[in-house]
Design goal:
Number of strands: 25
CATH topology of the largest domain: Molybdenum Cofactor Biosythetic Enzyme, Chain A
Number of helices: 6
CATH superfamily of the largest domain: MoaB/Mog-like domain
Distance between the termini: 44 Å
C-alpha cells in the first residue's frame, strides 16, 4: 500500500488497473451514448448508385460542347425521373431526361444541368453553357464504399452514427455496457433524506450527489443506504455491493483522526489497498482498494471533497469501464475574474465557474470554498488547480482550470 501519494501517482495507479468491460448487444436506437464494442464495416456502397444532387436535366456532355448564351443547344426531353424511381430509357445523341434530387442517373448521361440554368418545356430543354463530364453527379460509394470501416470500436455513439448504422441495414449493435456503481454512506450522524432531523444529525446528501455524477457519466448508480460506524456492518454492506455492482463507492469514515473503519473494512474483506491519502485539498483522506477485479473507493464524508475526488479519480474509471478512451478532464488556460488569497502547502482544487467570453475563457470563484460546503457547488463547472506553494492570485491572472462542463457565455 502506498501512503500519501501525489495526484499524478494516484491517477497512474488507477489507470493501470485492469478494468472489466462487459459487452452487450442492443437495438441501434437504444445504443445512443454507449461505446461501440465492434467495428462497423459497410457491406454496401453509399450511395448505392450514381445519383443527382439537384433538380435538373441529365444529358451527354458532348452534346453541349458548343452551348453559349447566344447560341444555346436544344435537346429533346424523353423522360422524367422522381427520387426513388428509375428510367429505363437510354439517353442518345441530342436527348435529355428531367431528373429530381436523389434520383439515379440514367444510362447514357454523364452530366446534370440545374433547372435554373436552362429554359424548358415538356418536350425540349435549352442549354446555355458547357459542363465537363461527371459534373453534378454523386458517384456510387462517394460517401461509403464496400469494406469501409465506417465506425470504429471505442467510438461514443452519437445520433449521426445511429443513422449510419440504419443506412447499412444494421438493426442491432454490440456495445460496452454501462457499469453499476454501488454507493454506501457511513456515519452515525446520517439519516435518510425522507427522515426528520434530530439534534446532531444530517441528511445523507452525499449518496445523491455521487449518484447524480454517476448518471451524468452514463453509469447506473445503486444507493445502498446508510451504515453506522460499525465495522462488521460496513463489511457486510461492502460485500453486498460487490456482489451486485462493478464498482463500490463509500463516503465518510476515512478522515485522518476517525476510526478509519472504512479503510479497515476494505482490508478485512480481502481487498488489496492500492493507496491511502493523496496530496491534495480537499479530499486528502481517500482510500482505494481492489477486490478481485473490482475497485472500491473510500471518499471523504465532506460534500465538496467527495465530489471533487470523484471527478479526479472515480470518473476516469467509470469511463474506462464504459469503453471510453479519453477520460481525463480537459485543461484550458483562463483569466481569473476573482481573487484567491490562500497559499497552500499542497495542491488544491478550487471549485470554479468558467465560461467563454470575447474569444477566451474566464473564471469566477464562489464565495465559499470549505470542503463541507455543498451550496457553492451548484453552479460550478470547473476546477481551478492551485499548485502547492503558489498564490495569492489576483483578478486578471492567467490560471489553469479543468472543465467539468462547458457553457457558451456565463
Amino acid at each position: 500500500m502506498l501512503t500519501y501519494v501525489s495526484v499524478e501517482k494516484a491517477e497512474e495507479i488507477l489507470l493501470n488497473q485492469e478494468i472489466k468491460r462487459n459487452i452487450v448487444e442492443m437495438p441501434i436506437l437504444e445504443s445512443l451514448d454507449y461505446v461501440l464494442a465492434e467495428d462497423i464495416v459497410s457491406d454496401i456502397n453509399i450511395p448505392p448508385f450514381d445519383r443527382s444532387p439537384l433538380d435538373g436535366y441529365a444529358l451527354r456532355s458532348e452534346d453541349i460542347k458548343n452551348a453559349t448564351k447566344e447560341n444555346p443547344i436544344t435537346l429533346e426531353v424523353i423522360d422524367s425521373i422522381q427520387a426513388g424511381h428509375v428510367s429505363h430509357k437510354i439517353i442518345e445523341k441530342g436527348q435529355a431526361i428531367r431528373i429530381m434530387t436523389g434520383a439515379k442517373i440514367p444510362k447514357g448521361a454523364d452530366v446534370v444541368i440545374r433547372f435554373e440554368d436552362t429554359e424548358f418545356t415538356d418536350k425540349n430543354v435549352k442549354i446555355f453553357s458547357y459542363l465537363e463530364p461527371n459534373s453534378n453527379i454523386v458517384k456510387a460509394g462517394e460517401d461509403i464504399k464496400i469494406g469501409d470501416v465506417v465506425l470504429k470500436k471505442g467510438k461514443l455513439i452519437k445520433p449521426a452514427d445511429i443513422g449510419i448504422m440504419a443506412s447499412l441495414g444494421k438493426t442491432k449493435v454490440k456495445v460496452f455496457s454501462k457499469p453499476r456503481i454501488a454507493i454506501l454512506a457511513t456515519g452515525d450522524e446520517l439519516v435518510e433524506i425522507d427522515k426528520c432531523l434530530e439534534e446532531g444529525k444530517i441528511r445523507n446528501s452525499n449518496s445523491y450527489t455521487i449518484a447524480a455524477q454517476i448518471k451524468k457519466l452514463g453509469g447506473e448508480p445503486v444507493i445502498l443506504g446508510i451504515c453506522g460506524d460499525d465495522l462488521d456492518k460496513i463489511k457486510e454492506k461492502l460485500l453486498d455491493g460487490l456482489n451486485t455492482a462493478d464498482i463500490v463507492i463509500t463516503t465518510g469514515g476515512v478522515s485522518v483522526g476517525d476510526a478509519d473503519l472504512v479503510k479497515e473494512a476494505f482490508i478485512e474483506i480481502g481487498g488489496e489497498l492500492l493507496f491511502w491519502k493523496v496530496r491534495m485539498k480537499p479530499g486528502t483522506p481517500i482510500a482505494v482498494a481492489k477486490y478481485h477485479s473490482k475497485l472500491i473507493f473510500g471518499l471523504s464524508g465532506n460534500p465538496a471533497a467527495a465530489s471533487i475526488t470523484f471527478e479526479k479519480f472515480v470518473r476516469p474509471i467509470i469511463l474506462k469501464a464504459m469503453g471510453r478512451e479519453n477520460f481525463k478532464l480537459v485543461k484550458v488556460e483562463s483569466i481569473l475574474e476573482s481573487e484567491f488569497t490562500k497559499v497552500s502547502n499542497q495542491n488544491r482544487y478550487v471549485r470554479a465557474i468558467t465560461y467563454y467570453k470575447n474569444g477566451g475563457f474566464v473564471t469566477v470563484l464562489p464565495d465559499k470554498h470549505s470542503s463541507g460546503v455543498l451550496s457553492s457547488m451548484s453552479d460550478t463547472n470547473s476546477l481551478f488547480y492551485v499548485k502547492a506553494g503558489t498564490g495569492p492570485y489576483k483578478k486578471g491572472d492567467k490560471i489553469q482550470v479543468e472543465l467539468l462542463d462547458f457553457v457558451e457565455g456565463k
